[in-house]
Design a protein that fits this description.
Layout (H helix, E strand, L loop, with lengths): L1 H15 E2 L2 E2 L6 E4 L3 E13 L2 E10 L5 E5 L3 H4 L2 E2 L3 H12 L9 H14 L2 H17 L4 H22 L3 H27 L1
Antiparallel strand pairs: 1-2, 3-4, 3-7, 4-5, 5-6
Helix pairs in contact: 3-5, 3-7, 4-5, 5-6, 6-7
């Protein structure tokens, strides 16, 4: 009984990959780390430095700019499909949980947050957002950290909006409520420890 299921799973994996590489299709929304949701506009062969290769032509939905990514570099740049609704639920649990990493040294915090942003992982970017939100509640963020906070929030809001098929304004409100809930939980935990 399980054999037909496994056969279907393997067929799906084979369809989605070509030679071990992720294969996206024209019109598919994908996530480009640090830039957010993009659309694959076309896939075509091209030549750079006398090397023939296949390129994904992407349009960033945030500003309509265009990017070409060689198919062989998909893993390197971290291009990935949009997450599913279960990952969005997990994201909101993470934003609301009240567990926030803190760092004493701003340089260490900035580097660690930058490394997390580069992964393009929804949970890693959520950790950056929570951390910078906590810092901003205590003091003003530096210019670079403020920009990182804005990028992290937009990255999350954009993906939530596209996965849930809602307007970005509504997604922003949901993310903001989850962040506030997380901050409240953290403050209550700290108050309980002091008492």
């Amino acid at each position: 009984m399980i054999y037909p299921i496994l056969k279907n799973i393997f067929a799906f994996i084979e369809m989605m990959t070509e030679g071990g590489l992720l294969a996206f299709r024209v019109g598919q929304k994908v996530v480009y780390p640090s830039h957010g949701v993009t659309v694959v506009e076309k896939i075509e062969d091209g030549r750079i430095d006398e090397t023939e290769q296949t390129f994904y032509h992407l349009r960033l939905l945030s500003n309509d700019s265009k990017v070409m990514v060689p198919k062989t570099n998909l893993d390197l740049v971290g291009l990935r499909p949009l997450c599913g609704i279960s990952e969005i639920r997990a994201l909101f649990r993470l934003l609301r949980d009240g567990n926030i990493d803190t760092y004493k040294d701003w340089k260490g915090r900035y580097k660690q947050n930058l490394d997390k942003m580069k992964t393009g992982s929804l949970s890693e970017v959520a950790e950056v957002l929570k951390n910078l939100r906590l810092v901003s509640a205590k003091k003003s963020l530096s210019f670079r950290e403020k920009k990182m906070y804005e990028r992290a929030k937009y990255f999350i809001v954009s993906e939530v909006a596209h996965v849930k098929s809602i307007a970005e304004e509504n997604a922003d409100k949901q993310v903001e409520r989850a962040l506030l809930t997380g901050m409240d939980k953290r403050n209550k935990k700290k108050a309980g420890q002091v008492a």
